[in-house]
Amino acid sequence: MKGALEETTVLRGAFGTVRTAFDEPMTAAEMTKRPWVRRASYLVLFVAVVFIGDRLISFGAMKLVQQSKNQFVRMYEGKYPANFLFLGNSRVDRNFNFEKIREVTGKSCLNLGLGGNHTLIAEVLLKDFVERYGNPELVVVELSHSTANPYTMGEMGIFSYCSTNMQALGKIIDPTYAGFESIFHSLRFNNQAFWRLSSEVFSEPPTRLLNNTIPAEIINQWQHGEHVEMPIYQKNLEALTRICQYADARQIRLRLVIGPYWKEFRKGWSNYDAWKAALQKAAGKHEILDYSEVFFDHAEYFNDEMHLNATGAACFTRKLVEEKVL
Questions:
Q1: Measured distance CA(168)–CA(163) in Å, rounded
Q2: Does one domain contain both 287 and 218?
Q3: Residue 109 forms beta bridges with which residues?
Q4: Averaged over 258-279, what is the pLDDT?
Q5: Does residue 176 fall inside a structural domain?
């Protein structure tokens, strides 16, 4: 009579030899006879390589960005405390002479305006600054960014690597992309912002002031009766209300400004009064300082219909200082 171990290790029958749980593991040769095992092992290996590669790429990209001299990076890295904080889109970036403000007032300035930024992004940037540095002496918000599309992160999505507030906004604006980004961290660096920030690792960012005058084609376009109706986004208005409430709760001095527009563009803006009224309602007790018409007689101050050139920026800055806005 055969031993019990022999009976439990090999069973013979009509289906051939069948291994039991007490048998030795399969050999490599036996694994190759079972395609699903081989395919599963390849899949696991592929996923591991992709995951590890993603983390290595994102870590390297993050370290490179952290060396950038860009003002947004320096703010997030704790290297840019400032007295005056400026928020908005390219009309902040281009229309204020921050060096002149520093010279006249003795106050350091941080420009957090960038083309495409909307009011929800300005809200996040304000909170992120306060969390890192405490209250600034003054926050200036140029309100034309309320006409920017609030359903995109623009170039600010890259800063989700260091800002939980920016991460949260990304989840609201595009939850699907944010979900993929939470798995594949390198996605946040796969954009134009990464290359711009990387280029500023080795050199100081160039001046944001413009040096041209309005091109003839723009002049012809608007002097022939061109009209435009700018969008009024409820989400941006709600964000403006929250910015005002946030500043009030922390006793931060707040200035809400509409910067200069070229005369013909401003006259062709068909719903300007409705837009301004919506802004004032959202701002509550905070007065909106409207400088949209201040340079109607100075077309030479403009680079295009929306942006001042360097001469115009100097004049606008001087006016704000003289009127104690800054």
A1: 9
A2: yes
A3: 84
A4: 96
A5: no
